[in-house]
Amino acid sequence: MTAPESTASVGTSSPATIIEFDNVSKVYDVDGEGRKALDGVTLAIHEGDIYGIIGLSGAGKSTLVRTINGIESVSGGSVRVEGKEIGELRPKELRGLRTRIGMIFQNFNLMPSRTVAGNVEFPLRNSGLSKQERAQRVAELLDLVELSEHSDKFPAELSGGQKQRVAIARALANNPDILLSDEATSALDPLTTEAILALLKNLQAKLGITIVVIAHQMQVIKEICNRVAVLEHGTVVEENDVYSVFANPQADLTKQFIANTSALGQGENTATELASDETLIKMQYVDQNVSESLISTASRQFDVDIDIRFAEVSQIGSRPLGGIIAVIKGSAETREKVIGYFRSRSVNVEVLEASRA
Amino acid sequence: MNFLSTLFPDVSVRMDEFYDCTVETLIMVGIVGLVSFVLSLVFAVILTTTKPGGLSENTAVYQFFDKLINLFRSIPFIILATTMIPFTRIVMGTAIGLKGAIFPLIVGITPFFSRQMESALLGVDPGLVEAAVSMGLSKPQIVWRVYLRESIAQIAKVTSITIVNLLSMTAVIGVVGGGGLGDFAIRYGFQRYMIDASIAVVLVYLVFIYIAETAGKLVIARTSH
Ligand SMILES: Nc1ncnc2c1ncn2[C@@H]1O[C@H](COP(=O)(O)OP(=O)(O)O)[C@@H](O)[C@H]1O
Ligand SMILES: [Mg+2]
User: Fold this and answer.
1) Whose atoms come closest to the Cα of A59: which ligand?
2) Residue of the CA atom closest to atom 25 of ligand 1
3) Which residue in A310, A250, A262 sits closest to A282, CA to CA?
4) Domain end (from A242, A274, A289)
5) Nearest CB to A105: which of B131, B149, B150?
6) Does residue B180 contact residue B96 with C-beta atoms inside 8 Å?
7) Residue A200 located in a structural domain
8) From A287's CA, which of A39, A46, A310, B152 has a CA 20 to 30 Å away?
9) Domain limits at A130?
10) Domain coverage including residue B102
């Protein structure tokens, strides 16, 4: 199955492109042999996006995101940020650009010898602000991430979530236009992850920045991103708005990622033995009310038993996405008709298992 | 004083000379330590930044310093010190006494100190460097604010280890007329069988080593969070 190539933005008044990858490739030299980390990546990230990049470990996510601030050079293609070609910037210009691109990491990367305030102040040293103005800015930032009372502590005295908050404050110090997050929640427990994701989303709304979020869990993408690219072996296998990806995943890898996050996905595996006249289906729909009445209508109209094994509604952005796993019992012909009926009502139906009888 | 003169009869009659030798050793350790500290820090920064994957990767520079340090480290100090006598004369004007001891000691300890410093800098989490790069810091700023600043405790540790090594080198340099406590121990303890002279020197060395280690631990305790 191939992914849609489209990078067109949603909506009519589409915001400007802020980050553009054009056929980007990266080959690392490993003991004299080339190891391809990125292979022909073409993507556009728009202003105000919370853009997710998901993939398994080693897919090239970190490499891709590091080409945005030029920490990693590209072997081919080009990366443009705010219209500037990263590869053509002089070292000084590149450093200037980097002050306007914040970055947070899985391991926080706070300076252990500096206090919380010292860490947040760290990137402000080059900003030309006076000592007093810097202290003022640090106070503002710590307030923003709700850590004011910890300003004199050292990183070792903080919890993981607090450390990541300090790192976020530090990344925002110079009022960046872009925030890069490389697995920022991967070292955190689920509750803390929720809190950090909520903070990122909040900051995006408050400051209007563009956030690029790397994750290896679809949950993170679902929670905060508006668009997502799925990376596999250095290539983009799927790219779309998050809702469409969840509602109608194209690539096998995307389906796996989604199955792993939703209880619905787990439900698929709990299928019982099917009788010869049964088909196990997965339905995904946008409007919950319609679909529930659809099932009763269908069972009446076609005179079949439709047994709901599992149902779930998940929230993606502000839109609900419903899913049902059900067994249709009836003649092969009728089962076909039922599925056709559902599809005609724009319910996405996937046959998980059908008896061959 | 009576007690001391019974225990250390040969030292107590040469108290002034013993005192002068102690001061000489201290001056040796102080000057050599300071010069070598700066040199080693520079070498360690060069090695750390030019090594493969480093901030300013440069294989030629890295290989040069790496090999140079290994070459000097592989020469036993007593051989280095004697071989260097003509060079010492050219650089310092003399090859004996305090003045003559300083140059070979610097050459002798710096390779060791540089390796120790290098390992201290290598202890800095590469993630911190990556974060600093991503914030737009220049390379000198990264060296200063990340590599050096974040390894102060490790630098203190390797410095105290190095001073202990340097102390034993100052004793060796005494053999080739370098002055200091080593010289005192050779002239009286070894050549004239005055056992108490050797023991007194050993005791002073023990005190010096204790001070070096304690100072190191204090700095480590104050800079670790
Ligand atoms: N500095 C490097 N040198 C050599 N190979 C590297 C380097 N960095 C990453 N790679 C390789 O490139 C591929 C992609 O790595 P990475 O971008 O870190 O993936 P991800 O972040 O998705 O886990 C992997 O195969 C990895 O081993
Ligand atoms: Mg990674």
Assistant:
1) 1
2) A58
3) A310
4) A242
5) B131
6) no
7) yes
8) A46
9) 7-242
10) 13-223
